[in-house]
Amino acid sequence: MPVFLRRFLLLCCTLVAATALHASEADTWAFEPARDRFEAASLLDLRGLNEAVAGQSGFVRTDGQGGFVRGDGQPIRFWAVNTDLARREPSEVRPLWGPGGEDLAHHARFLAKRGVNMVRLHRQVSPDLEARPDAALNNINEAEREAIWRTVAAMRREGIYTTLSPYWAVPMKFAQRWGISGGHEQSALGLLFFDEQLQAAYRSWLRQLLTVENPHTGMALARDPSLAVFQLQNEDSLLFWTVDAIQGPQRETLERRFTDFVRQKHGSLWSALWAWRGHAFWRDHLFQRRLSLLSLWELTQPVSGTGKARRLADQTEFFARTMHEFNRQTVDYLRRELGVQSLINAGNWKTASAERLADVERWSYTPGEVDAVNHYFSDIHRGPYEGWAIVNGDLFTDESALRAPWRLPVNLRQTRGRPIMVTESSWVPPNSHGAEAPFLVSAYTSLTGVAGYHWFAIDQDAWVAPRSANGYLPSLQKWTTGTPEVLGSFPAAALAYRRGDIRRGEPVLVDERPLPSLWRRDAVSLPEQPGFDPNRDETARQSLPATHQGPVPPETFLVGPVQVVFGAEQARVTSADLSRYIEPQRVRANTGELALDHRLGVATIDTPRTQGVAAHFGQAREHQLSVLGARSDNDFGALMAVSVDGQPLASSGHVLLQYATRSRPTGWKDQPATLRLDNGRTVQGREVLAFGQAPWRVVQPLLDVSLRNPGLRRATALDMNGMPLADVPLQRDKDGVRLRFPAGSMYVVLR
User: What distance, in Å, lies between the first and last C-alpha atoms of the chain?
Assistant: First the structure.
């Protein structure tokens, strides 16, 4: 090709690229908010929702109806985040992050301003063998304890409570000199439930964590009412696939315990074998008087044969009672020995089978007062670092919960009378539908009575800018919720949820379960949809999340609370007439306040004080609720209108409009791609061509809004700190007001 032609084509390509880039920038705005100075002139500050000091009226308690109350008896719901800010040392420098350090006071005030009233500290107080190779097994990680102390102190000053998670088996490491049974290279997963040496060390860590005076508050955590919920451990269970990895001396110990359990239950080992009709005796170590534990896969399957069914029921009961007993003993230790007054959650994990084992897991939590689960809205993401980072060449699918609402992470089976919290959750990048997340979480946790939702995670003291996943690898951070469309959508969603604007529904399904039904692993009619962990769900790593198809449609969770009663005299499922609420493509809440059309991808909230629409507007551009009207030319977005003064929207003198679209890092590029799954299927997704850099580029709002409130006189656009930017033209008539949502903003205040 002649040189002049090559140069001409290069110039044409450059012009096309420049035009495309210009068009892209014209359709977006750069997200570069100033540091919040918490000025009195801000028109958006929810700090007043919190107490002056968290716990000033006493310890948080349960209300017996599945909710929480403060020490003074006032109901309280928790809009929460996981924060990692205090984990970074001031001297820590990573090439792609810059200097470390934190401003916890600013961080706490920043969160409180946006409606947060709880943080979760997911820490690891076991010995840090990298920092202290000579540490003894019963030594606490003092740096982690100090980070916990400082964070609790900073948060309580801003009226923010704490959920504390101090132990996770995954990062637990053993030193060879400790002489732990099974050796120093084994995983700690599952061991805490039965290994007595590890349990003794764990109790020592808890004593050092909870009974030593916090120098930043002058009181021990055991006596600090701002510590609302204490979690015994994070993401571990004898009912998850990892139990099969317990081998060697530890498995022999567990099997001897199983044998003792069976002998006590049946009267003798031989009586048990007779009851089991000799099932699988060839696997057992009868000369050692030790019974084998069958693989967990066996517990996930329907069973034929009386003998096998009885054996599997005994093993299921053994696993459940082993966990229950550890939880009972630890709760007793915390209460009696350490004087802990906080509420206690025993666990937050899932099982190998939502249909057959999830209720067994929740029953094992009952020695504590609070249930919990970690559950993300996550799609397929394939790449070399898919568990923690996004890099060029990654493949992903990009689902919206508006189109798959049965996958909402707040669709939970709740144990009647007990609060349940989601302690880790988010719409995990590279998913681009985060704008719907606070809207849907606020709506459906309110409807079903979920008592707290913890977004995962924030590790900067304000907004989280696009950056490397670990500070070294050129990449994009994956596990973050500090983006414009998610964190930016907190204020209206948090206000509506915490204030109770969206009513709790009547139970739509009640599942009464005798304990033998749990041990038999009878499949439930409406299981929770399984969450997906890209680091441990190896069998599902390249498959689409499954959707249960049973006798009860999964959309039932969107109608009202689904409750479970343990210990019933007989099995019984009581259900509302679902035909009144569930249509082929549409589902309505039994309160009449929420509706979701998953064919069009549209959800609406219509209550006296809060109204909104989250939608794929390309399918349905115009929406009219009782007070709020909207028409959008965006392809996707979430609008909420909330009465700030607590009056009905139709007569309120202070209304917040909040509108979120999409964001991507500057320079982000992706293209359509086909993903081939392990089972041979293919699905359509996207390929990351460039993961981009800071700042975020936010899609401009293309939105017309109306409110049937003729008393409103003025509209003001706000920046991300709630500071006035400019007046917004407001059209008024006898019925109300209309406005065009301003460019470069997510908030408008009407007065």
Answer: 66
Buried-state track 577-594, b at ≥16 Cβ within 10 A, e below 16: ebeebbeeeebbbbbebb
Asked whether 138 and 204 are in contact (CB, 8 A), the reply is yes
Give the angle subtended at the CA of 354 by the CAs of 349 and 355, to the nearest 5°. 155
Q: Please state the separation of Cα 56 from the chain's center in Å.
A: 27
Specify which residues 739 forms β-bridges with.
Answer: 705
Assigned token pair, 435: 């704008």
Over the stretch 14-30, which tens digit does the pLDDT of each residue have?
333 333 333 367 899 99
Distance CA 117, CA 104 (A): 15
pLDDT above 70 for 272: yes
* SS3 call for 163: strand
Contact 420, 412 (CB under 8 A): yes
* CA atoms of 525 and 723, how far apart (whole Å): 50
Contact 483, 451 (CB under 8 A): no
φ, ψ at 241 (rounded to 5°): -55, -25
**HEC string for 59-127:** CCEECCCCCEECCCCCEECEEEEEECHHHCCCCCEECCCEECCCCHHHHHHHHHHCCCCEEEEECCCCC
The answer to whether 85 touches 462, Cβ cutoff 8 Å, is no
- With 0-12 CB in 10 A as exposed, 13-18 as middle and 19+ as buried, what is 544? middle
CB 649 within 8 A of CB 709: yes
Average of per-residue pLDDT values in the chain: 93
Instruction: Supply the Cα-derived Rg of the chain in whole angstroms.
Output: 27
Using alpha carbons, select from 448, 719, 384 the residue that is nearest to residue 589: 448
Amino acid at 382: R
- HSE toward the beta carbon, residue 550, CA cutoff 13 A: 18
The single residue listed with the structure tokens 């801003």 is 158
The edge-to-edge listing of strands for the beta sheet with 669-676 is 381-382, 395-396, 682-690, 669-676
Phi and psi angles of residue 680, each rounded to the nearest 5 degrees, phi first: 95, -15
Q: List the 731-733 sheet strands across, edge first.
A: 622-624, 628-632, 703-707, 736-740, 731-733
Which 8-state DSSP code applies to residue 335? Answer: I
Give the mean pLDDT of 638-667: 98
What does the CA dihedral 729, 655, 491, 703 come to, rounded to 10 degrees? -40
Residue 567 region, left (φ>0) first, then alpha (ψ -120 to 50), else beta? left
Give the CA count within 13 Å in the CB-facing half-sphere of 618.
Answer: 2
Report CA dihedral (83, 84, 85, 88) to the nearest 10 degrees: 180
Neighbours of 178 (CB within 10 A): 16
CA torsion angle 515 518 522 528 (round to 10)? 120
- Burial of 270: CB neighbours in 10 Å, binned 0-12, 13-18, 19+: exposed
Q: What is the pLDDT of residues 28-87, one digit of tens each?
A: 999 999 999 999 999 999 999 999 999 999 999 999 999 999 999 999 999 999 999 987
pLDDT tens per residue across span 340-367: 999 999 999 999 999 999 999 999 999 9
The residues with which 605 forms a beta bridge, in sequence order, are 594, 612
pLDDT of residue 539: 42
Q: How far is CA 226 from CA 58, 503, 536, 683, 695, in A?
A: 8, 27, 33, 47, 35
The DSSP 8-state label assigned to residue 370 in this structure reads B
Report strand pairing: 610-615 vs 586-588. unpaired
DSSP label at residue 333:
I
pTM of the model: 0.95
Cα-based distances in Å from 537 to 113, 207, 501, 540: 37, 34, 37, 6
**Across 658-678, average pLDDT:** 97
